[in-house]
Design brief:
The protein has about 170 residues and is mainly alpha-helical. Helices cover about 60% and strands about 10% of the residues. It contains 8 helices and 3 strands; from the N terminus they run ααααβααββαα. A 3-stranded mixed sheet has the order 1-2-3. α1 packs parallel to α7. The longest helix has 30 residues. The chain is globular and about 50 Å long.
Protein backbone atom coordinates (compact mmCIF):
# COMPACT_ATOMS: atom_id res chain seq x y z
CA UNK A 1 0.00 0.00 0.00
CA UNK A 2 1.37 3.39 -0.95
CA UNK A 3 1.29 6.25 1.51
CA UNK A 4 0.59 9.74 0.26
CA UNK A 5 2.83 12.69 1.05
CA UNK A 6 -0.02 14.22 3.06
CA UNK A 7 -0.33 11.01 5.14
CA UNK A 8 3.44 10.97 5.67
CA UNK A 9 3.50 14.45 7.17
CA UNK A 10 0.37 16.30 8.22
CA UNK A 11 -1.35 13.73 10.47
CA UNK A 12 1.92 13.23 12.37
CA UNK A 13 2.40 16.96 12.77
CA UNK A 14 -1.18 17.29 14.00
CA UNK A 15 -0.90 14.41 16.46
CA UNK A 16 2.19 15.83 18.10
CA UNK A 17 1.06 19.48 17.96
CA UNK A 18 -2.14 18.49 19.75
CA UNK A 19 -0.02 16.68 22.34
CA UNK A 20 2.21 19.77 22.73
CA UNK A 21 -0.91 21.88 23.30
CA UNK A 22 -1.96 19.39 25.96
CA UNK A 23 1.31 19.20 27.81
CA UNK A 24 1.72 22.97 27.69
CA UNK A 25 -1.77 23.35 29.22
CA UNK A 26 -0.84 20.82 31.91
CA UNK A 27 2.36 22.77 32.49
CA UNK A 28 0.49 26.03 32.91
CA UNK A 29 -1.97 24.44 35.36
CA UNK A 30 0.90 22.89 37.31
CA UNK A 31 2.86 26.15 37.53
CA UNK A 32 -0.22 28.11 38.62
CA UNK A 33 -1.02 25.48 41.29
CA UNK A 34 2.57 25.58 42.55
CA UNK A 35 2.80 29.38 42.52
CA UNK A 36 5.47 29.31 39.82
CA UNK A 37 5.44 32.09 37.24
CA UNK A 38 5.10 30.31 33.85
CA UNK A 39 7.17 33.08 32.31
CA UNK A 40 10.17 31.66 34.18
CA UNK A 41 9.89 28.52 32.05
CA UNK A 42 10.10 30.37 28.71
CA UNK A 43 13.88 30.69 29.07
CA UNK A 44 14.37 27.35 30.90
CA UNK A 45 16.95 24.93 29.50
CA UNK A 46 17.91 21.36 30.25
CA UNK A 47 21.59 22.25 30.09
CA UNK A 48 23.47 25.53 29.71
CA UNK A 49 24.50 24.92 26.11
CA UNK A 50 21.00 23.90 24.99
CA UNK A 51 18.45 26.34 23.62
CA UNK A 52 15.53 27.40 25.83
CA UNK A 53 11.92 26.25 25.97
CA UNK A 54 10.79 29.14 23.74
CA UNK A 55 13.15 28.00 20.98
CA UNK A 56 11.92 24.41 21.26
CA UNK A 57 8.28 25.46 20.86
CA UNK A 58 9.05 27.89 18.03
CA UNK A 59 10.96 25.10 16.30
CA UNK A 60 8.04 22.69 16.63
CA UNK A 61 5.96 25.19 14.65
CA UNK A 62 8.75 25.87 12.17
CA UNK A 63 9.47 22.20 11.45
CA UNK A 64 5.81 21.42 10.79
CA UNK A 65 3.87 24.24 9.13
CA UNK A 66 7.14 25.97 8.23
CA UNK A 67 8.31 22.79 6.49
CA UNK A 68 5.17 22.68 4.34
CA UNK A 69 5.56 26.39 3.55
CA UNK A 70 9.21 25.78 2.68
CA UNK A 71 8.23 23.00 0.30
CA UNK A 72 5.74 25.34 -1.35
CA UNK A 73 8.47 27.98 -1.77
CA UNK A 74 11.24 25.55 -2.74
CA UNK A 75 13.50 26.51 0.17
CA UNK A 76 13.58 26.17 3.92
CA UNK A 77 15.57 28.51 6.14
CA UNK A 78 16.01 28.73 9.89
CA UNK A 79 12.88 30.40 11.20
CA UNK A 80 12.49 33.89 12.54
CA UNK A 81 12.29 33.76 16.30
CA UNK A 82 10.47 36.03 18.70
CA UNK A 83 13.18 36.64 21.32
CA UNK A 84 10.75 37.41 24.13
CA UNK A 85 7.46 35.52 23.80
CA UNK A 86 5.28 34.82 26.82
CA UNK A 87 4.16 31.32 27.74
CA UNK A 88 0.74 32.29 26.36
CA UNK A 89 2.32 33.49 23.10
CA UNK A 90 3.97 30.09 22.71
CA UNK A 91 0.69 28.31 23.38
CA UNK A 92 -1.02 30.44 20.72
CA UNK A 93 1.76 29.70 18.24
CA UNK A 94 1.20 25.97 18.64
CA UNK A 95 -2.58 26.36 18.34
CA UNK A 96 -2.27 28.61 15.28
CA UNK A 97 0.17 26.16 13.67
CA UNK A 98 -2.21 23.26 14.25
CA UNK A 99 -5.13 25.23 12.83
CA UNK A 100 -3.16 26.20 9.70
CA UNK A 101 -2.15 22.57 9.11
CA UNK A 102 -5.74 21.41 9.59
CA UNK A 103 -6.79 23.87 6.88
CA UNK A 104 -4.48 22.34 4.27
CA UNK A 105 -6.09 20.15 1.65
CA UNK A 106 -4.78 16.66 1.04
CA UNK A 107 -4.31 17.48 -2.64
CA UNK A 108 -2.26 20.62 -2.00
CA UNK A 109 0.17 18.71 0.22
CA UNK A 110 0.28 15.64 -2.03
CA UNK A 111 1.21 17.96 -4.92
CA UNK A 112 4.45 18.80 -3.09
CA UNK A 113 5.73 15.21 -3.17
CA UNK A 114 7.96 15.46 -6.24
CA UNK A 115 9.25 18.93 -5.49
CA UNK A 116 12.82 20.02 -4.96
CA UNK A 117 13.67 21.97 -1.81
CA UNK A 118 16.90 23.52 -0.60
CA UNK A 119 17.71 23.93 3.06
CA UNK A 120 19.40 27.33 3.07
CA UNK A 121 21.86 28.05 5.86
CA UNK A 122 23.74 31.26 5.18
CA UNK A 123 25.46 30.80 1.83
CA UNK A 124 25.08 27.03 1.93
CA UNK A 125 22.25 25.29 0.06
CA UNK A 126 21.54 21.65 0.84
CA UNK A 127 19.33 20.04 -1.82
CA UNK A 128 16.54 17.59 -0.98
CA UNK A 129 13.59 15.94 -2.62
CA UNK A 130 10.37 16.67 -0.73
CA UNK A 131 10.14 13.14 0.66
CA UNK A 132 13.77 13.05 1.78
CA UNK A 133 13.41 16.51 3.34
CA UNK A 134 10.35 15.37 5.30
CA UNK A 135 11.76 12.02 6.39
CA UNK A 136 15.39 12.89 7.07
CA UNK A 137 15.21 16.53 8.17
CA UNK A 138 11.80 17.97 8.98
CA UNK A 139 10.24 15.13 10.97
CA UNK A 140 13.39 14.31 12.98
CA UNK A 141 13.79 17.99 13.91
CA UNK A 142 10.09 18.26 14.72
CA UNK A 143 10.27 15.29 17.11
CA UNK A 144 13.55 16.47 18.65
CA UNK A 145 12.15 19.88 19.56
CA UNK A 146 8.80 18.52 20.78
CA UNK A 147 10.64 16.00 22.96
CA UNK A 148 12.99 18.65 24.33
CA UNK A 149 10.06 20.95 25.22
CA UNK A 150 8.35 18.01 26.97
CA UNK A 151 11.58 17.22 28.83
CA UNK A 152 12.00 20.81 30.01
CA UNK A 153 8.50 20.75 31.50
CA UNK A 154 9.15 17.34 33.12
CA UNK A 155 12.43 18.67 34.51
CA UNK A 156 10.45 21.50 36.13
CA UNK A 157 8.09 19.11 37.86
CA UNK A 158 5.14 19.00 35.48
CA UNK A 159 3.49 15.58 35.99
CA UNK A 160 3.62 14.30 32.42
CA UNK A 161 3.86 10.79 31.07
CA UNK A 162 4.45 9.15 27.73
CA UNK A 163 0.75 9.33 26.85
CA UNK A 164 0.95 13.13 27.15
CA UNK A 165 3.69 13.14 24.52
CA UNK A 166 2.05 10.63 22.18
CA UNK A 167 -1.25 12.47 22.03
CA UNK A 168 -4.16 10.90 20.24
CA UNK A 169 -2.88 7.96 18.26
CA UNK A 170 -4.45 7.09 14.93
CA UNK A 171 -5.83 3.66 15.78
CA UNK A 172 -7.72 1.35 13.49
CA UNK A 173 -11.46 1.98 13.68
Amino acid sequence: MAISFYQLTVPTYLQVLTAVEGFMAKGLAHFEAQGVDPESIVEARLFDDMLPFRFQIQSVAHHSLGAIEGLQAGEFKPGARDPSPTYGDLQRRVTDTRAALEALSHDSVDALEGRHIDFVLGEQRIPFTAVDFAQSFSLPNFFFHATTAYDILRHHGVPLGKRDFLGRMRVKR
